[in-house]
Amino acid sequence: MNQSPLQTALSRAMIRWSLTKSTQLADSPSSTIFKVEQNGRNFAVLKLLKPAAAQEERRGGRLMNWYGGEGAATVFDIHGDTIFMEWLDGGTLGDAVRAGHDDQSTTALCSVVGGLHRARAEPLEDMLPLRERFQPLFDTDVRAWPHTARDMYARAAGIALKLFDRPTAQIPLHGDLHHDNIMSSDRGWLAIDPKGLLGDPCYELANAFINPLGAEDTVKDPRRIAAMADMVAERLGYSRKRVLGWASAHAALSACWTLEAGEAIIWQLTMLPLLLSAYDQA
Fold it and tell me: Looking at the whole model, is its pTM more than 0.90?
């Protein structure tokens, strides 16, 4: 009986890394993920990439490998379109926020970013420039936005252009660092699923300002926005104004992606005026 391409790729990976058992955990547009065993004792993860997202996923895999386990799950090996990596068996930082521990979660976020942004001896090439990541924001037809929100779109796009015109250090970025992309482990909180970008370190926590899902009352509290910006500035030494500027710009970019997918931007339109207000007051 002929195997499917997925089964063939899985079989080859099991042989290559001497794995003994596999259990499918998830199947997304970008990859199929398996929990695997080594000698019946140690667990690990196989991430089999799909063609449509292979380039982005490979870039993220190279970034994870470059992190070397500091602030992120360890990548053991990459072969073709298969990533062999550390198994994390804890919950996410999003779970902690939804359980009422948002302040502690922000502390953990800053700790993770500190590990990710630590200087490494070897340079990393072929990451996607942050400016290219933001191109959908600048290409969007403002008429796609609700009439009453077009001024916010214009303001956020203007802030993004201003930030790009005044660049700071350009470093490898996770690029999608929200609470549910950070998992608990016996090594502490670790990031997963990076996009692999190159840009301003102040952008790294932008997505966290509109996350996690399921904790909307906490996330939309202006006091939470201010407290998160304060902590990022204090613990990481990043410009509070730039952090809030990137958070505003990212919320607008997120809205553009959502509109392109034909979906409503109710959540982004809830957060964007709050973030713009915080930016103005910074």
Answer: yes
